[in-house]
């Protein structure tokens, strides 16, 4: 599957999670439920995947962790905030760069209609 096919499946599952849970819960609840749904659908998914920083050929564990990594291609960053802002975008761009990934789905579950809380972030440098 390519990144677009993966992201379509993720979005469908995320919408299903949101329809059941609605807005207003902690990020961790949405992460666990989406992780569960992805696993049940047979999609390879990793939770809290550590991403090191490479500086002058030295690998530094700085505590960066991806919420979810799907098929080793698509990063999912889950939020439950009033609204997405530039800091959230900067975080996702950093993850894409550090992991050399092409696509991140920034998903804010704290909205009444989930499609309004999804932002696709593409790493054009890959």
List the helices and strands and how they pair.
Layout: H1 3-21, H2 27-40, E1 45-50, E2 53-55, E3 58-60, E4 65-70, E5 74-79, H3 86-99, E6 103-108, E7 118-122
Parallel strand pairs: 5-6
Antiparallel strand pairs: 1-4, 2-3, 4-5, 6-7
Helix pairs in contact: 1-2
Could you walk me through the main structural features you see in this protein, from its secondary elements to its overall organization?
- The protein has 3 helices and 7 strands, in the order H-H-E-E-E-E-E-H-E-E.
- By secondary structure, the chain is of the alpha+beta class.
- It has a single domain (3-122), classed as Trna Endonuclease, Chain: A, domain 1.
- A 5-stranded mixed beta sheet has the order 1-4-5-6-7, with helices on both faces. Strands 2-3 form a two-stranded antiparallel sheet.
- The protein is globular.
- It starts with a helix and ends with a strand.
Keyword list:
two-stranded antiparallel ribbon, alpha+beta, 126 residues, single chain, five-stranded mixed beta sheet, Trna Endonuclease, Chain: A, domain 1
């Amino acid at each position: 599957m390519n990144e677009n096919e993966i992201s379509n499946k993720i979005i469908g599952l995320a919408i299903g999670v949101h329809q059941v849970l609605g807005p207003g819960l902690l990020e961790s609840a949405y992460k666990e439920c989406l992780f569960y749904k992805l696993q049940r659908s047979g999609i390879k998914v990793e939770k809290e995947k550590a991403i090191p920083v490479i500086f002058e050929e030295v690998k530094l564990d700085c505590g960066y962790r991806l919420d979810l990594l799907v098929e080793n291609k698509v990063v999912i960053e889950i939020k439950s905030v009033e609204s997405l802002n530039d800091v959230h975008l900067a975080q996702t761009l950093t993850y894409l760069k550090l992991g050399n990934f092409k696509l991140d789905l920034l998903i804010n579950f704290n909205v009444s209609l989930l499609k309004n809380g999804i932002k696709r972030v593409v790493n054009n440098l890959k």
